[in-house]
Every structure is written in C-alpha cells, then in structure tokens.
Write a structure and sequence with these properties.
TIM Barrel, 18% strand, alpha/beta, 38% helix, 250 residues
Length: 250
C-alpha cells in the first residue's frame, strides 16, 4: 500500500476552528456541506477543501464533489473530483469514469476490500490508471465515551451498520488500531471520518487517533506540498485529456 490518507467530513456549519484543527492534524482534506470554500481557503494554508462548488484553476487546494457528468465536465483541469459510493450502479459508474477520490461506505474489512478491488478493476477497464484513484473508507465516528465505552461490534470489534452508514463508537486508540490494520492489509487507501459531534469528536480524532498514527510513523507530520493533488499523491491530468472529456460530456 502507499501512504495512509485521512480526511474528515464537516457537515453543517463547523466554523473555521474545526477546519484549522483538521489542518493542524495534517489531514488531506475536509468535505464541506456549503457551496463556497473560498473564505476558508483564505484562513488556511495547506489543507484541501472539498465542496459542491466548482473551483477555479487557481485554487489548487479546492476539490469538488462529483454528483453528475455535467458537474464533472465543468471542473478545472487539476481539480480533485471526489465521489461517494453507496453501492448504486449509477454511483459506481460515475466514480469509475470521473473520480480521483472515492468514499466507500463499508462496515467491514471484507466488504471494503472487495469494493476497492472492484473499483480498481473497473477503473482499469475504463482506460484509467487505478493507481491514480484513492479509495477511502467512510465512517461516522463517536469518540465521546473514551476507550471504556466500546460496545460489542464497536471499538476493537470494528464499525457497525446503521441507518446513517457505518458507525465506529469507541476510543481514539482503538480507532487508530483499526485504521492502521485496514490500511496495512490493503483494504483501503485511507479513511474519511465524519464526527458525530463535530467539535469534540474531531478534537479527539486529531489529538488522539491522528497523533498516535503520527507517533508510530504511519501518518505524515507535515504537508508534502501546497495542493490537494500533492497531498493525495495524485498526478496532474494532461490538459488535452481533460479537454477531450469535457467536450464529450457537455
């Protein structure tokens, strides 16, 4: 496996403090529910910001959620396209054709690994390089109770299926172990976590889970560059390829 990648989902209105905390932890990017990340770009210096807004070519740290071919065709050449897969065939086709980063809802190692392998096969069949696509397991996390709060099916037992997607409930140390194990086994390229309590759970994730992974040498302690593609280790697409795709889908 390549480098471990970590990102966070900050839905609602998390405020700049949450984004700055995620940047302090070295996360690759955060996903935002709002349409305009430009104000947060001005307040931050390294972390990637992914929203529904189509970024301009000058914003190398901005990414866009892929929710339809028309939107995909309007992104800048270097913009990182992020798709969420919910096991709907339309979602899978969209991710295979356009996405640079795919967020997969999977509550178990076997399922996550199977989806990653299927995506890589389909990406290769579509004529794209599967090593140029990052597949992240998407989890909601509840770290509020500490290590002692792990329940059967949670904590050291792993995530649990819920109506809102896979949920991990337990402590930061157990979560670090889960992340390290899944990544080492080739199940996923990393994790996209959505804190149940945006402020407190994100703080426990950054100061606990991420700090432990950094201490063990499993996650970076500084950003390798200034763009989201550099954080993710993704190549820059050739302009001619991007423009040709745009003509086909507009």
């Amino acid at each position: 496996m390549g480098l471990l990648h970590l990102a966070a989902g900050l839905d609602g209105d998390p405020g700049p403090d949450a984004v700055l905390l995620a940047e302090r932890g070295g996360l690759d990017f955060v996903t935002l529910a709002g349409d305009d990340p430009l104000s947060l770009l001005a307040l931050t210096s390294r972390i990637g910001l992914v929203s529904d807004a189509v970024p301009g070519p000058a914003h190398g740290r901005a990414g866009v959620r892929v929710e339809g071919p028309g939107l995909s065709g309007r992104t800048a050449d270097a913009a990182v396209r992020v798709a969420e897969v919910t096991f709907d065939q339309a979602d899978l086709r969209l991710a295979v054709r356009y996405a640079d980063v795919v967020l997969v809802r999977a509550a178990g190692r076997a399922q996550a690994g199977a989806v990653r392998e299927e995506l890589r096969r389909e990406v290769a069949a579509a004529g794209r390089d599967p090593d140029a696509v990052r597949v992240l397991a998407s989890l909601r996390i509840d770290l509020g109770g500490g290590e002692h709060a792990a329940e059967p099916g949670h904590g050291g037992g792993g995530p649990r299926h819920t109506a809102h997607g896979p949920l991990y409930r337990g402590g930061p140390v157990d979560l670090a172990e889960l992340i390290a194990r899944w990544h080492a086994e080739g199940v996923t390229d990393g994790f996209h976590v959505t804190p149940v309590e945006p402020r407190s759970d994100l703080e426990r994730f950054v100061n606990g889970t991420v700090a432990l992974l950094q201490h063990r040498g499993l996650f970076r302690t500084f950003y390798p560059g200034g763009t989201l593609r550099e954080h993710l280790g993704l190549p820059y697409p050739a302009p001619s390829v991007s423009h040709s795709m745009e003509r086909l889908i507009t």
